Amino acid sequence: MNRRIFSHVLGACLAGVLLVAGPAAGAADEAPDALIKRTSTEVLDIIKTDKAIQSGDTGKVIALVDGKVMPHVNFTRMTAATVGRNWRQATPEQQKRLQEEFKILLVRTYSGALAQVKDQTVSVKPLRAASTDNEVIVRTEVLGRSEPIQLDYRMEKTPTGWKIYDLNVLGIWMVETYRTQFAQEISTKGVDGLIAALAQRNKSNAGEKTNAGEKKS
Question: pLDDT of 72-87, one tens digit each?
Answer without folding.
Answer: 789 999 999 999 999 9
